[in-house]
Structures are given as structure tokens and as C-alpha cells.
Amino acid sequence: MKTKAPRFFATATVLVWTVLLWGCASSHVDQSSQNESHENISPEQKEAVLKALRLHASRDLYIIPNIPPNKLANARQSCAVAADDEVLALVDTSAMRSAKSCLVVATSGIYVKNDLIADSPGRSFLPYSGFVDGGIKRNQRNEVSIGGVIFNMAWCSISKDEMIQMLSDIQVRLRR
User: Distance between CA atoms of 23 and 64, rounded to whole angstroms?
Assistant: First the structure.
């Protein structure tokens, strides 16, 4: 008599991995915190940030006006970006290339949406007031800490060193 246990465990394993991978494409949106401060940078600072971003153009970094509309819509929704907050750049970190897990550089700060497999899943926001003097460092194998906000880069083609350099360049330009 054959047992069904190996088949059951194989099916369960596939189901668990499917849930984990599709979690990054979830339509669940973490709502923005009531305590978030959203103060936009000046037009001059915006141009300085864009110059810093253009130095690091890559496959997973989309800079205005070259952000695909579907990725922009997904990122705005999953990060709960305010309607009046302009997205300057988007780093797609989703396994399915949907930008539902991402880092968004906007005119009021940095938004992060990590997928469910990250050590720190969910949405975070870091206003420029906390970003400019916040530390940027390697955290874990696939993560970078940005002023205390954890950004999971597991599905991103940008190296951690390049991401840290890009964020550091933005900091320097905003301090001027």
C-alpha cells in the first residue's frame, strides 16, 4: 500500500513557496501612519536629487519621465504615496517585476515596500529630514538600512554597494 505522505509534503512545499513569492505581489497596502511628516523639497533640491539619481541609472532604477505607468501605479499603491507627492524614481525589487515591492524616491522622502519574505516586511516612510543625516549601511545579506528603515534588495539587480552609493549621493546633494 502506497502512502500519500510524500505527495502531501511536496504539495505543501509548493503551496508555501507560492504564497511567499506571491506575497510580494499582494494587493495588501499598509496605510500611511498618522504621524508621518510629508514636507516637499524645493525645486532646486529636486533637480539635485535627479542629478544624483541619473549617475546611477540601471535596469531596476526608473527615473522620471521613464517610469513605466503600470510600475508607477503599483508602487504608488503599495507604498501608499500621497497623491500630491511626486515620484522622482523607483527601484523595482519585486520577484514578478511588478514594482509592488520597491523603493520610491519622492519629493517628500523615501518610501519602501518590502515583500513578505523580508526580515522587515511591509511599508516604511523616511522623510528627508530623517534621511539627510541618517546612516546608510549594509544590514543583512539582502538588506540595506537607510536611516533605520530596512530595505530588502533580494530581487534587485542593483548591488548593495551601488544602492548605498546612490543614496549617499542623494544625501550629499540635499545637504548643499
Answer: 27
Are 136 and 153 within 8 A, CB to CB?
A: no
**3 state SS for 92-137:** ECCCCCCCCCEEEEECCEEEEEECCCCCCCEEEEEEHHHHCCCCEE
**Diameter of the chain by CA atoms?**
76
Asked whether residue 18 is domain-assigned, the answer is no
User: Which grid cell is 17?
Assistant: 513557496
Output DSSP code: residue 154: T
Total-model pTM: 0.81
Residue 118 domain flag? yes
pLDDT tens across 99-155, in order? Answer: 999 999 999 999 999 998 888 899 999 999 999 999 999 987 789 999 989 999 989
CA atoms within 13 A on the CB side of 126: 22
Total domain count, the chain? 1
